[in-house]
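Input record (Table S2, row 356):
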Amino acid sequence: MVRMKMSFRWFGEGFDSVKLWQIRQIPGMVGIIGTLYDSKPGEEWDLEAIRNLKKQVNDAGLELLGIESVNIHDAIKAGTPERDRYIRNYIQTIRKLGSEGIHMICYNFMPVFDWTRSDLAKPRPDGSTVLAYDQHRIDQIDPQEMFTRLDGNSNGFVLPGWEPERMAHVKELFDLYRNVTEAQLFDNLVYFLNAIMPACDEFDVNMAIHIDDPCWSVFGLPRIITCKDQLLRLMEAVPNPHNGVTLCTGSLSSNPANDIPDIIRSLKGRIHFAHVRNTRYTAPGVFEEAAHYASDGSLDMYAIVKALVDIGFDGPVRPDHGRAIWGEVAMPGYGLYDRALGSQYILGLYDAITRQ
Ligand code: CS2
Ligand code: MN
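Output record (manganese (II) ion complex):
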């Protein structure tokens, strides 16, 4: 029987408040989605460090099912002349990961920032807190201020994609993209993918681009991985099956026009990784994250898991951002408790669907 593999994102010893042995005790958990959290975008990953990560995961009784993320240097996204050097490094990293038996790389192609939120700890009526986004509030601040706010409210953790070293140069980064249109950003992505596909073929590495979050332009920067048309366009532009998607339901849901089960079905064979989480839609440009349980938010979680089952998805799936509950202090969105609950809900849906 086709079976998706339940996994958990783990940032690594010293970076994550969650321990591998704790993850191992979550029923049905088979894998880890890991990373070298202290690697900088653009640098070639160290083979010993990859082996060490894999060993830690295996020693805990789990399998390293993929990497999230091998981040892309801004020179590649902006298409500057130095990009070929950074692409060569990326290819080396692909080769090393593939030769160590790690066959999935999640990445994103958002300029400057990874996901953006206006609030990292919005209180819910039950006393839990969630990540939230309000475009009106984002419109009132500048990027530097947003970074300062997020950094000051992240419980002392470095947020993924928000490395302080890079954020110290926010202004230069914005300058880099001043003349980059969405069309150029798309071409730069295709250029990158075409360059790395031979290595992906040779080492059987699936590239899985994450949906932009939220899926529209923020601070005037171009964003292109936002909806069904764009995803299909990218799949057609580089038709190699190693060019695939991280189907992140939460990110897609920031725009309610995205019909997520339909998008899943349209990407049959090209989804290499799934992030399944729920959000609560409030108004255009305003949403907050929710428990994975469908009734707590706006998404039809049953229809989402059903679509994944129907297309025969057998890659890694993971719960995504969780609420902060039970007094846990963790990286916002990445505590143990609510993501563990989320994984059980996804598995419950999965079991019910596959029994029918
Ligand atoms: C995020 C991102 O939604 C998510 O999963 O937490 O940080 C995501 O890991 C990256 O955009 C993938 O490169
Ligand atoms: Mn995600």
